[in-house]
Specification:
The protein has two domains: 110 residues, Cytochrome Bc1 Complex, Chain D, domain 2; 88 residues, Cytochrome c-like domain (Cytochrome Bc1 Complex, Chain D, domain 2). 49% of the residues lie in helices and 5% in strands. The longest helix has 17 residues. The chain is elongated. The chain binds heme C (2 copies). The site of one heme C has 26 residues, from strand 1, helix 6, helix 7, helix 8 and helix 9.
């Protein structure tokens, strides 16, 4: 089925497509004339999108879209970028890449320890102890340009560090690794892989995922 070409991975759980080829063709033909809201509630379209997601996105985001370390959960309300139709369609079409620079050489061992305690404290809204206060000074020197002065992040530059939600992990060890070695994450562009109709279907499907999640 040439219409369905998409990169698959042997790791991804297989979702079986129960639609026949004529039904699939009919869906692709009607996508352009449908609004996003109509697509989101059209059962045939969403069945096809579930399958497309498992084929094209499931190897990283998992078939249930809950992600894994380094790959965001698409069923929750936390967004690295935005959860709007336009931002999601842009992510799928053009891809996204996030780079956290490595600071292993710039920040000494003692300062690093203080900084990690401060970053850990950002998620708890308690008063800072003396180590955390010392860590805040280091944070203000190296981190505010992307994560903002209060740690709530800057769209497209650096994620929020003050919520309970972590892409890489919020314990002492993973925070330390994020800072010393940096992090890189990429969502691949699909514009040369998927058709416009397939991208529309996946945008509708992704909007549904977060609407259903919590
Ligand atoms: C090679 C692994 C990989 C594949 C395949 C992949 N993604 Fe991603 N995706 C990622 C990573 C990693 C990120 C986070 C990028 C970052 O940190 O800047 C991401 C981010 C996203 C986001 C933004 C989430 C947010 O919180 O703002 C959306 C939406 C998304 N992907 C949808 C998809 C869809 C739909 C597909 C299938 C067409 C797909 N991705 C395929 C790895 C992947
Ligand atoms: C140039 C911008 C930039 C600077 C400066 C920067 N970061 Fe980041 N940081 C990022 C980006 C982008 C990510 C997300 C990487 C990804 O997509 O996986 C990130 C991720 C992180 C994470 C992982 C978050 C998670 O959810 O697991 C931590 C922790 C972190 N940064 C802390 C810091 C600290 C502390 C500093 C200062 C020493 C700092 N960052 C400086 C851009 C930056």
């Amino acid at each position: 089925m040439i219409f369905l070409s998409a990169c698959s991975s042997s790791e991804a759980p297989i979702v079986e497509l129960m639609l026949d080829e004529d039904q699939v063709i009919a869906i692709y033909q009607r996508v352009d004339s449908m609004s996003m809201a109509d697509l989101q509630t059209d059962s045939g379209s969403m069945e096809l999108a579930t399958w497309l997601f498992s084929e094209s996105c499931g190897s990283c985001h998992q078939a249930d879209a809950k992600g894994r370390k380094g790959v965001p959960d698409l069923t929750d309300q936390y967004w690295l970028f935005e959860g709007t139709e336009a931002a999601i369609a842009h992510t799928i079409t053009s891809g996204r890449s996030g780079v956290m620079p490595e600071f292993g050489r710039d920040i000494g061992e003692v300062e690093l320890g203080l900084l990690v305690t401060y970053v850990e404290s950002l998620a708890a809204s308690e008063e800072l102890n003396s180590n955390e206060t010392a860590g805040k000074v280091i944070y203000e020197e190296f981190c505010v340009a992307c994560h903002a002065i209060d740690g709530t992040g800057i769209a497209n530059l650096g994620p929020n560090l003050t919520d309970e939600h972590w892409q890489w992990g919020g314990n002492m060890i993973t925070i330390r690794q994020s800072i010393t070695a940096g992090r890189k994450a990429e969502c691949p562009a699909q514009e040369d892989v998927l058709s416009l109709q397939q991208i529309q279907l996946l945008t509708a499907y992704t909007l549904n995922l977060s609407a259903a999640g919590s």
